[in-house]
Amino acid sequence: MMVLITYDVNTTDKEGQKRLRRVAKKCVDYGQRVQNSVFECLLEPAQFVLLKNELESIIDTDKDSLRYYMLGANWKRRVEHVGAKETYDPEGTMVL
Amino acid sequence: MMVLITYDVNTTDKEGQKRLRRVAKKCVDYGQRVQNSVFECLLEPAQFVLLKNELESIIDTDKDSLRYYMLGANWKRRVEHVGAKETYDPEGTMVL
């Protein structure tokens, strides 16, 4: 199933910056980075459970958030992209 | 229809920072901010066309990107949120 994952990680301190890197790295392992904090991940249900557990163990739930959008079988028809190409470099220039 | 809008605006210069503010402000007019660069907008088809035109006139398509996800009628069942509450303040602390 296609799951869109978006996150906000509060990077006002070094711990937050570390969490942001860890969340991004984990998402890179499972899917395609389409924007800086937006990933599209084609996952088996068991993988999704695993990824959720991993991400939720990284974030600080008081400061950060994760959103999952189940895009369903027709996900390709649901997506439209405008502008610069997808960003793939997890450690590259911060593009918000 | 429910449209999820995500954006990356390159803020390495002042023009980019201005574009980011303008994109955020425009999205606030049409929907609910659920993360810093993620909005859920319940739109009539004509409104969606208008919003797209407005956003695409603001961004620099060489540097920035917009993605639209049509979440369909059952959008509430497609969304899962974990962690800190949705962010609503368009000018607040930058939360990535």
Chain-wise SSE layout:
2 copies of one chain form a homodimer.
Chain A: E1 2-8, H1 14-30, E2 32-35, E3 38-42, H2 45-58, E4 65-70, H3 75-78, E5 79-83
Antiparallel strand pairs in A: 1-3, 1-4, 2-3
The CATH topology of chain A: Alpha-Beta Plaits
Work out the oligomeric state of the chains in this entry: homodimer
- DSSP strand content of chain A: 25-35%
Largest interface: A-B, 46 and 46 residues
> From the coordinates shown, what is the CATH architecture of chain A?
2-Layer Sandwich
Helix content of chain A: 25-40%
The total of beta strands of chain A comes to 5
Write down the overall mean pLDDT of chain A.
90
Derived structural class of chain A: alpha+beta
Trace the largest sheet of chain A across and list its strands.
Answer: 2-3-1-4
Query: Overall 3D geometry of chain A?
Result: globular
Q: How many domain units of chain A?
A: 1
